[in-house]
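cache lookup: miss for this entity combination. No prior model stored, computing from scratch. Input as submitted by user K.M.:
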Amino acid sequence: MKLSSEQINQKLKDAGLRVTPQRHAILEAVYTLGNHPSAEQVIDYIRVNHPGIATGTVYNVLDVLVDSRLVKRVKTDKDAMRYDAIMNRHHHIYCAETDRIEDYFDEELDDLLQSYFRKKNLQNFKIEDIILQIKGNFNDNSE
Amino acid sequence: MKLSSEQINQKLKDAGLRVTPQRHAILEAVYTLGNHPSAEQVIDYIRVNHPGIATGTVYNVLDVLVDSRLVKRVKTDKDAMRYDAIMNRHHHIYCAETDRIEDYFDEELDDLLQSYFRKKNLQNFKIEDIILQIKGNFNDNSE
DNA sequence: TTCTTATATAGGAATCATTCTTATCTAAGA
DNA sequence: TCTTAGATAAGAATGATTCCTATATAAGAA
């Protein structure tokens, strides 16, 4: 998803963050790259137009964006952390072999799960979020 | 879950693996420790009785056990990988603050999900496994 | 049993994503 | 303009994990 420069700034402001060129560039990168980029991909992307931004700053800013709920962390079976600018509730379809992640939106499923666990009423645990990791293999190479 | 020495050996053999003292000690550690130990916890545990087992060997053996489907990897929000000797299908209840993981078994839920996705019939993806990560907070400190 | 050889392990260096440290810089209010 | 808390640059440090190589060992062959 591509956002305008103004939209990026607005998101930062709405989150109560100071707008800096670094934060702008990094948030824009996560949106533009899409498909759950790693920190390294973000770095490669922003270095083209902002060669001066330090590696540590990218990690620092990504942490800030996560804390401010502008971005989510996504774990995979591989080492590196991935980031996701889509904040609506969704699940992940994941292939461990290729490390490819696709988003999966399904309100019907979310409702189903919510009512299931309300009925189940787990003792000793307050559920905040339920995320499905749907593992398997993609049948094609389309992105 | 505590297994006898013979049961450990049998599991290694059934998986087509050579039985070595290192493999025996490490698989036994994952079973005995329970509750999704990290490699470091496994190392601390086995060093008491097997001070000579090298750190690299523990990672190496854990990889072998995972490849042989005797153990599963479990990711959390923290850095270190965790390991799980329970191979039956199950989900995880997880608290990010304390990094505590509890297993969640629920065949009814598994059936529900299976029929839901069969009906949904995802294009371009062959589902092998669906894992729920149920995130939130435990209401007490019981283990 | 002894020999042979593929496999496994010890020991420690190397890697790599991420974090930390410190000095410098900058945005926003006084 | 001045002040200062917050942000960044640069690169060292960390820590889990992997890699490398010489040595050791398990399991089948003789």
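stored under new cache key. The interface with chain B takes residues 73, 75-77, 93, 102, 106, 109, 112, 116-117, 120, 122-140, 142 of chain A (CB under 8 Å).
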